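Supplementary Methods. Inverse-folding protocol.

Structures were first reduced to a discrete structure-token string of length 190. This string, shown here, constituted the complete conditioning input.
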């Protein structure tokens, strides 16, 4: 199998690292060679976080170059726009419509760009945008955005729901398991 590339991008504290570990665990159980690489930026101050997940028969490098991502899963709208040059032609951009103001917007030095989903679609990108924050809150916690987005990503993979659920069970603490399963299901069905 040719190597597939998934980028998971967001802002520090949104749970993108758990999402990448969950996806990596699922891919390992399916027998793929995988490489996962995390880049933290200023993640602890609300800065950009990106994780690369690469899988296939044999993967030699953990890094995804511009124009190589089959999927970008974005936890925040501006982060989706920031990483679009990494999406390959025909790739899929799955994004949360939530907007988190970066520091230049907070300080008044810049404005948050308007109509980002429409602009990305006008640029020819295949964008699947959902309000993952509302779905996470419906599941029981705003922190479950990561599982909502993994549920959405699952629509584009040929793995069974049971395989996804087993990866969730192996990745999430037991006391948060039911809420995270609900969040996954809401993202899958959105």
């Amino acid at each position: 199998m040719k190597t597939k590339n998934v980028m998971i991008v967001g802002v520090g504290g949104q749970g993108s690292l758990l999402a990448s570990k969950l996806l990596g665990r699922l891919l390992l159980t399916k027998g793929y060679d995988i490489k996962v690489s995390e880049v933290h930026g200023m993640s602890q101050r609300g800065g950009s976080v990106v994780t690369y997940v690469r899988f296939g028969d044999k993967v030699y490098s953990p890094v995804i170059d511009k124009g190589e991502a089959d999927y970008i899963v974005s936890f925040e709208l501006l982060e989706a726009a920031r990483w679009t040059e990494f999406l390959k032609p025909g790739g899929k951009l799955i994004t949360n419509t939530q907007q988190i103001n970066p520091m230049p917007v907070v300080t008044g030095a810049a404005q948050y760009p308007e109509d980002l989903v429409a602009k990305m679609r006008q640029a020819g990108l295949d964008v699947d945008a959902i309000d993952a924050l509302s779905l996470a809150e419906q599941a029981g916690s705003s922190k479950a955005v990561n599982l909502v987005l993994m549920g959405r990503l699952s629509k584009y993979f040929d793995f069974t729901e049971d395989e996804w659920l087993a990866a969730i069970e192996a990745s999430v603490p037991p006391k948060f398991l039911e809420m995270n399963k609900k969040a996954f299901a809401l993202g899958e069905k959105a």
